[in-house]
């Protein structure tokens, strides 16, 4: 299989190419990947792909050499200098010390103590998701991260489906089923929600979904929400008081609405499918619920919701035997690093008791996922509840067409309450 397959979204329609990753880790752990035009999206200059665990960590821990800011963190370059300048004020696309300043402003909402205060509510919400019969588990699982984010962000319940639609459009833009998704019931939205729907732009094919123009409806909503009085303080109101500029506020809203949503919407169904594909390990977990936490870490390793992130070299550097030049794109593959046999014995085996488990599904270094505690709490609540149900596939799963998100579009399952242990 040619190395260009690493880049093509169509490669991931059937499975993550772990066999190709394994070969490249062995033969060319840092490898040049071409970036051809795909449909309406123009050709790019290509990039260095990093496959080994140690090299991935090296890149992620060294923002002075491998910058999140210079070219942002997606493989695809922003369409215009103005688009690049706009996304560079997003926390995800910053380097220290600017990144550190924004992270401090919102960190209080995601401490273990803050998450513990939410855990009972999250668990109750997770338990209410399930009912006997057939369902699409992707849709069922999507409710919890959307509800949790709406709660944290101060988004009214009537508007939470907007978060689902925005995440679908941004993350799933390579998939025709997701790129134009609009599922919110306009009549049930708040005035701010209806304002957002009215502000939704009509874009030409190939427009970058992360550009300010493509997200004008989201940003119209963010500003309207910030001006709406609420009881208590939401994360968004804390951010406004923290001295964020308008562009920083808009990008932070984007980061919460999309990054904190889509990862769990993909990760939790992926975790369930992994369990169903390994019935002996599911039985082992049922027999010993104390393995819940380690099983979740193994699900995250085995099915990382995000497959890669990009950096840009700030200076010439040798990595993995390759001479990288200043300005080159450098893309770290979490999905490959999580199967590196130098770190994970028998890496293709799913083991609910695996320990230690040094996966990089939440990243590493300065950009380690700020919401990791909250993500784990939601994952734990759903999987704990699922152990009380017999679950079987009711149809074939369908994967998301994306070279970025390791996602499922559909996971038909049949649920019945377990009669005993």
UniProtKB/TrEMBL annotation:
<comment type="similarity">
    <text>Belongs to the cytochrome P450 family.</text>
</comment>
<keyword id="KW-0349">Heme</keyword>
<keyword id="KW-0479">Metal-binding</keyword>
<keyword id="KW-0503">Monooxygenase</keyword>
<keyword id="KW-0560">Oxidoreductase</keyword>
<dbReference type="Pfam" id="PF00067">
    <property type="entry name" value="p450"/>
</dbReference>
<dbReference type="InterPro" id="IPR036396">
    <property type="entry name" value="Cyt_P450_sf"/>
</dbReference>
<dbReference type="InterPro" id="IPR002397">
    <property type="entry name" value="Cyt_P450_B"/>
</dbReference>
<dbReference type="InterPro" id="IPR017972">
    <property type="entry name" value="Cyt_P450_CS"/>
</dbReference>
<dbReference type="InterPro" id="IPR001128">
    <property type="entry name" value="Cyt_P450"/>
</dbReference>
<keyword id="KW-0408">Iron</keyword>
<protein>
    <submittedName>
        <fullName>Cytochrome P450</fullName>
    </submittedName>
</protein>
